Automatic annotation (TrEMBL):
CDD domains the record matches: SDR_c3
Protein family per UniProt: Belongs to the short-chain dehydrogenases/reductases (SDR) family.
Entry protein name: SDR family oxidoreductase
Annotated NCBIfam families: PRK07109.1
InterPro entries, sorted: NAD(P)-bd_dom_sf, SDR_fam
Taxonomic superkingdom: Bacteria
SUPFAM superfamilies: NAD(P)-binding Rossmann-fold domains (SSF51735)
Assigned keywords, A-Z: Oxidoreductase
Length: 355
């Protein structure tokens, strides 16, 4: 009797710690994947990589010309794809994305909430109108996408993946993008909350939060700027394919979080363990690493209220351009990562003893 009880407790504890209902997701080659914000940057790269792996792609964004060009490109290579012109800040547009996917392919298996926009400027300089518009895209777009995706997965009763793209500034507040960060905090809080609710009811949904660091996309060019100098990332910058790699891995493997670049994970840890030190560091380094030495584009040219230019994966950022994220690759092999960490700790401990 005691052994049986212990077995049940161990099984329950294992399930509790793993934080998953052990869902099995389809291989990408057998999937229909919906990607918002697919006309440029991370979304564009993810669409191309997903199609190359055999997935059927449903691309959504506000730039219809770019979407049409993308779909024609994918079809010319023998891939199945369709597009939907949509503003994710409008609930009816998000429903139209789901409807198109179902009418075209009969279903969707992964939904990627990627669309996003930023405002560069100090918080008290930015108008409430601009903040609300940004939140419509960054937060409400994720809420609407989550609702239609979860409803679809539950109705089909077939495991599906919901992937929300957050930010390193969703884990830690910042300067200059101080109105953007709260919109991503909201995405992180929403994702964690609905993940727990869905796990509790054992719904057939894998929920992943993506934490990108500084990524080389046109995101800075699309942003509305209140700065005198043009917004841009400076320093260590990761390619959009590193984010796409993490997204597509999560589409096949249930993952709670995927951090893009050690900088994203390091900022989260530093902000948690040493918050005041992190405040001071960011007060010194953020502003000079968030612009380049040329005049900022006029606000009316931003993509806050209209579609930005499309079909560009990379932006105009400057600095150390990484070719990949080793941290993403490590996260895809957690056992090897744990072993490596254990070996590293052992070596460090032995070295300390010798000292």
């Amino acid at each position: 009797m005691n052994n049986i009880g212990t077995g049940k407790i161990n099984k329950w504890t294992s399930t509790l710690i793993s934080g998953t209902n052990k869902l099995t997701l389809k291989d990408l080659q057998d999937q229909v994947i919906v990607i918002t914000g697919a006309s440029s940057g991370i979304g564009l790269k993810t669409a191309r990589m997903a199609a190359a792996k055999g997935a059927k792609v449903v691309a959504a964004a506000r730039n219809e010309d770019a979407l049409q060009e993308l779909v024609e490109e994918l079809k010319a290579k023998g891939h199945a794809a369709t597009f939907v012109k949509a503003d994710v800040g409008r609930e009816e547009d998000v429903h139209a994305i789901a409807k198109t996917a179902i009418e075209e392919f009969g279903r969707f298996d992964t939904w990627v909430n990627n669309a996003g926009i930023s405002v560069w400027g100090y918080a008290f300089d930015v108008t409430n109108e601009d903040i609300k518009r940004m939140v419509d895209t960054n937060f409400w777009g994720v809420v609407y996408g989550t609702q239609v995706a979860v409803k679809h997965f539950k109705e089909r009763d077939v495991p599906g993946a919901l992937i929300n793209v957050g930010s390193l500034f969703g884990d830690r507040g910042t300067l200059v993008q101080s109105t953007y960060a709260p919109s991503k905090f909201a995405v992180h809080g929403w994702t964690e909350s609905i993940r727990m609710e869905l796990e509790k009811e054992q719904a057939p949904v894998s929920v992943t939060l993506i934490h990108p660091g500084r990524i080389d996309t046109p995101y800075n060019e699309h942003a509305r700027s209140y700065l005198e100098k043009q917004p841009a990332h400076r320093g260590m910058i990761y390619p959009p394919e590193a984010v796409a790699e993490a997204i597509l891995y999560a589409a096949e493997h249930p993952k709670r979080d995927m951090f893009i670049g050690s900088q994203a994970k390091a900022l989260e840890l530093l902000g948690t363990l040493l918050p005041r030190l992190t405040d001071r560091l960011m007060e010194r380094i953020i502003y000079p690493t968030q612009h380049v030495e040329r005049p900022s584009k006029p606000r009316e040219e931003s993509a806050l209220y209209k579609a930005g230019y499309g079909m560009h994966e990379r932006g105009t950022n400057v600095g150390w351009m990484r070719k990949r994220s080793l941290y993403v690759k490590a996260c895809k092999h957690p056992i090897l990562t744990t072993i490596a960490a254990g070996v590293g700790l052992t070596v460090w401990s032995l070295a300390k003893r010798k000292d």
